[in-house]
Amino acid sequence: MAELKTKTEEWLRLAAMELPPRRIRPLLDHFQGDPGGLIAAGVSSWRELAPDLTKKQLERVEENQSRSFDKELAWLSDNNGSVVPFDDPLYPANLRELPDAPPILIARGKLLPEDKFSIAIVGSRRATSYGLSLSRRFARDLVNHGLTVVSGGARGIDTQAHLGALEDGGRTIAFLGCGVDINYPADNRKLFNEIANGHGALLSEFALGVRPEPWRFPARNRLISGTSMGVLVVESPVDSGSLITAREAGDQGRDVFAIPGPIDTGRNAGCHRLIQDGAKLVESVDDILVELGILTLKSPESKADESVSPAIANLPPDQRKILDLLTLQPKQVQTIMQESGFNAPQVSTIVTMLEMRGLARRVPGNAFVRVL
């Protein structure tokens, strides 16, 4: 327990230094991923290893090398909080692929392996009833197909996306542009509590206590898109921050979807521009599922199956290993063998057991998909 507390404190200390991920990750690599070794290095070592660090950044490093983090540790303990380092199995799998992925996320709530099957919903903070209702409806439909809904916890479209996911007992993740101990916006306090208490997680790359500042929100947008398989933009004017998320999604190789709307208000001009630039026009959640090649046996009308997670948790290690390799898109047996290290008879036996448990499905081409 003491060792875990020490490691958690080291990650909190590193997060408080607020160094850009592209700079901090090479430094961590130099110390074999050990935050304690990096933190213990003197400022002179930091200067040598990262000569491009500014004076202000080095001052922040020195300031956080020795200060107490007892307050932060107590807050995590009292509020279902945790740190999720880059090498943690629960670190978002899709996000880990990015070159600027944060070395650590701070969480309030719990992440699950199934959260890698997620779709982001973003849009205007000043949405009309048209956009608000669509955001909530699409979120509800997505979780009823077993997907996790990701958004940014802001007013408007984001809030309705989270509420729609919760409405039918689904999971949702909110990336915040501040510390996860800050309820921003304040009127979403109840929503954040519900997400954190068994229905998903609040996540941030920023340290506890960090206040929301305008520049932090564009930075967190890359995490919303990077964690997701695709991004759905709902009612966005051309100056909306949701277009930043859409651009990040495109740069990250994620699919971008947009819902069209009335042309006489300007509230949908951003969505229309995205569609002109190649985003997929969607009218229902089926358009998203088809574009991503997602196969699911869950009917849209069914509620989230609360027995799935315990079933997965009780799998033998070899079955769990194969299940974690399966995605919602077909994966051939040869690929499963290469990624798992199992031979053909072993893979055949394991995927058959997963089929019997209703967790995998055979598709044409000697391939398998994961069933949600």
Describe the structure.
It is a single chain. By secondary structure, the protein is α/β, with parallel strands linked by helices. The chain folds into three domains: 2-70; 109-292, Rossmann fold, CATH 3.40.50.450; 308-370, Orthogonal Bundle (Arc Repressor Mutant, subunit A), CATH 1.10.10.10. It is 45% helix and 14% strand. The chain is built from 18 helices and twelve strands. It has helices spanning 2-16, 21-30, 35-40, 43-49, 55-64, 70-78, 93-96, 129-143, 157-167, 189-196, 216-227, 242-251, 269-276, 285-292, 308-313, 317-325, 333-340, 344-356; strands at residues 81-85, 104-109, 118-123, 148-151, 172-175, 200-204, 230-234, 255-258, 280-281, 331-332, 360-363, 367-370. A nine-stranded mixed sheet has the order 1-2-6-5-4-3-7-8-9, with helices on both faces. Helix 8 links the parallel strand 3 and strand 4. Helix 8 (129-143) runs parallel beside helix 9 and helix 16 (317-325) crosses helix 18. The radius of gyration is 21 Å and the shape is globular. The model is unreliable at 297-309 (pLDDT under 50).
Secondary-structure blueprint:
Layout: H1 2-16, H2 21-30, H3 35-40, H4 43-49, H5 55-64, H6 70-78, E1 81-85, H7 93-96, E2 104-109, E3 118-123, H8 129-143, E4 148-151, H9 157-167, E5 172-175, H10 189-196, E6 200-204, H11 216-227, E7 230-234, H12 242-251, E8 255-258, H13 269-276, E9 280-281, H14 285-292, H15 308-313, H16 317-325, E10 331-332, H17 333-340, H18 344-356, E11 360-363, E12 367-370
Parallel strand pairs: 3-4, 3-7, 4-5, 5-6, 7-8, 8-9
Antiparallel strand pairs: 1-2, 2-6, 10-12, 11-12
Helix pairs in contact: 8-9, 11-12, 16-18
